[in-house]
């Protein structure tokens, strides 16, 4: 019985990491990337998201609850994990390790990001270009957010690889190798988008280098 429960929890954890949490990550990066077109473009995109119908219900049931479950159960997995070099080999074992490390870091990073933005907005602050530019006026926050973006994109991309394996989508060594290349491409593409957005908040000219 306990084994069945753990099997279900791991499957649900894997699924929620892709849908809806992973999809939200991509959407969030796309909205942030509007900063490369200037403050007005970003503010317009951000305000569009804020004015969606049933916004709070969508945030609670499609973002926060799935994210909380994924984070809490992910921490359990991270601290229970045993690295298996015999099964996964050198490369996959390191991907396994980094997946756990980034997961722990992301719990801290996302909590801070939500505190600085969504919680601040609940107390009357406006989430706009100026808010983000003010955050990035601190050099430490620039580094912190860049590391957070890289951790998030790696965790999502590598999680996609694990999701495909655990859900029986990639069962052969060849399909898993192809999935490795595809997920690495996703990692580099999303990292480029995320960091370019950060640079746009610091100085719009930097995003065009």
The CATH class is Mainly Alpha
Q: And the CATH topology?
A: 3 helical TM bundles of succinate and fumarate reductases
The backbone outline, from C-alpha atoms, is: globular
Task: Give the percentage of residues in beta strands.
Answer: under 5%
The second-level CATH architecture is Up-down Bundle
Rg, Å, rounded:
18 Å
Question: Helical stretch count?
Answer: 8
* H and E order: HHHHHHHH
Largest sheet: none
In total, how many beta strands? 0
Helix/strand/pairing category: mainly alpha
Q: Give the averaged pLDDT, no decimals.
A: 92
Helicity level: over 70%
Distance between the termini: 56 Å
Poorly predicted runs of 5 or more residues:
none
According to CATH, the homologous superfamily is: Fumarate reductase/succinate dehydrogenase, transmembrane subunit
Binding site for heme: 28, 70, 113, 155
Protein name: Succinate dehydrogenase cytochrome b558 subunit
GO molecular function, one term: metal ion binding
InterPro entries: Cytochrome_b-558, SQR/QFR_C/D, Succ_DH_cyt_b558_Firmicute, SuccDH_FuR_B_TM-su
Describe this structure in words.
The protein has one domain: 3 helical TM bundles of succinate and fumarate reductases. It has eight helices and no strands. The chain is mainly alpha-helical.
Topology:
Layout (H helix, E strand, L loop, with lengths): L1 H17 L2 H13 L5 H12 L4 H26 L4 H38 L6 H7 L3 H28 L6 H30 L7
Outline of the structure:
Pfam families: Sdh_cyt. The chain has 209 residues and is an all-alpha fold.
Key structural traits:
mainly alpha; 3 helical TM bundles of succinate and fumarate reductases; 209 residues
């Amino acid at each position: 019985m306990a084994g069945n429960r753990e099997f279900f929890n791991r499957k649900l954890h894997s699924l929620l990491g892709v849908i809806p949490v992973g999809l939200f990550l991509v959407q969030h990066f796309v909205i942030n990337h509007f900063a490369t077109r200037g403050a007005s473009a970003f503010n317009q995109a951000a305000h569009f998201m804020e004015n969606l119908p049933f916004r709070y219900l969508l945030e609670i049931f499609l973002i926060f609850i799935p994210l909380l479950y994924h984070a809490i159960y992910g921490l359990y997995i991270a601290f229970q994990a045993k690295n298996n070099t015999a099964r996964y080999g050198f490369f996959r074992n390191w991907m396994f390790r980094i997946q756990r490390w980034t997961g722990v870091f992301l719990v801290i990073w996302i909590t801070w990001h939500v505190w600085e933005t969504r919680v601040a907005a609940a107390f009357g602050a406006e989430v706009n270009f100026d808010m983000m530019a003010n955050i990035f006026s601190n050099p430490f926050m620039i580094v912190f957010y860049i590391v957070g973006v890289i951790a998030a994109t790696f965790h999502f991309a590598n999680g996609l690889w694990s999701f495909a394996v655990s859900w029986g989508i990639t069962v052969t060594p060849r399909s898993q190798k192809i999935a490795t290349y595809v997920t690495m491409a996703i990692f580099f593409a999303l990292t480029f988008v995320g960091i370019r957005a950060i640079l746009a908040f610091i100085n719009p000219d930097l995003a065009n280098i």
